[in-house]
Each structure stands twice: as structure tokens, then as C-alpha cells.
């Protein structure tokens, strides 16, 4: 059986980062959609480059949009994330970042790389049926 977390991290390590279509938020939301058997909400796919920059510029706005997207995917907030769950964390030097929990650490998307680090959790969501 293929580990979906490991497969996603390999994908991130082999593909370029794109500020609009392959950024941290869209990449994590797409992973959550695939893992739960859902489709990425259309409104998330239609966010413009300016809209994405505005969302990520304000932590509270980023959290609100992430809450809306994760709820649409059937993910509930959790205070104890486990492998395969997703969250918004503060990475040193990067700020608020969408990431996948790998256990004790978090994985975030870089440009043809996966950044694995600790981070301060701002919000985390449990996938309703993660294939861990």
C-alpha cells in the first residue's frame, strides 16, 4: 500500500513551486481533497495571485479561509494533530505556512523540495478518513 503522506512529499520534492497554483495552501488543500476523496472547492481554484497575496498577508484572513476550505472538505479542527493531518503552522523564517503533519514534525512545500521542520501550530485539521 502506498503511503499518501510520503507520496505527497515526493511529489513536492519533484515539482516546482508556483505562487498561484502550487503554493503551500493549494498544495495542502489538494492533498486533503485527494486523501478524503473530495474535490478541491472551485472557489479555491479561482483565487487570483493578488487574492492569494492578500489572504496570506494577514494571519486571521489566512486562518478564516483555511477554516472554510477544510470544513468544505469535511475536516474538523483538532488540538492533537497526527500523521496525515494538515495545519497552518509558523515556520521559522517563513511565517504562517500550510503543512502536513508527519508525526512530530511538519512538512511544507518548497521549490522542488519538501521542508521538514517543527513549527508553532496556529490551527490543525483532522482528515475524516486519512489513509495513513
The gist of it:
By secondary structure, the protein is α+β, with helices and mostly antiparallel strands. The protein has helices at 4-14, 24-36, 42-45, 49-57, 59-72; strands at 76-77, 86-91, 95-101, 106-109, 114-117, 120-126. A hairpin with a 4-residue loop joins strand 4 (106-109) and strand 5 (114-117).
Overview of the molecule:
There is one protein chain. The chain is 39% helix and 23% strand. By secondary structure, it is α+β, with helices and mostly antiparallel strands. It has a single domain (4-126), classed as Alpha-Beta Complex (endopeptidase fold (from Nostoc punctiforme)). It has a six-stranded antiparallel beta sheet with strand order 1-6-2-3-4-5. It starts with a helix and ends in a 6-residue tail after the last strand. 33% of the residues are buried. The mean pLDDT is 88.
Amino acid at each position: 500500500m502506498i503511503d499518501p503522506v510520503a507520496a505527497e512529499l515526493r511529489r513536492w520534492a519533484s515539482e516546482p513551486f508556483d505562487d498561484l497554483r502550487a503554493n503551500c495552501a493549494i498544495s495542502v488543500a489538494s492533498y486533503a481533497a485527494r486523501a478524503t476523496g473530495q474535490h478541491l472547492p472551485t472557489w479555491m481554484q479561482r483565487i487570483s495571485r493578488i487574492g492569494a497575496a492578500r489572504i496570506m498577508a494577514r494571519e486571521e484572513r489566512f486562518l478564516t479561509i483555511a477554516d472554510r476550505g477544510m470544513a468544505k472538505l469535511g475536516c474538523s479542527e483538532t488540538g492533537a494533530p497526527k500523521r496525515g493531518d494538515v495545519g497552518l503552522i509558523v515556520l521559522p523564517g517563513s511565517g504562517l505556512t500550510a503543512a502536513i503533519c508527519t508525526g512530530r514534525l511538519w512538512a511544507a512545500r518548497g521549490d522542488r523540495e519538501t521542508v521538514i521542520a517543527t513549527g508553532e501550530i496556529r490551527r490543525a485539521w483532522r482528515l475524516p478518513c486519512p489513509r495513513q
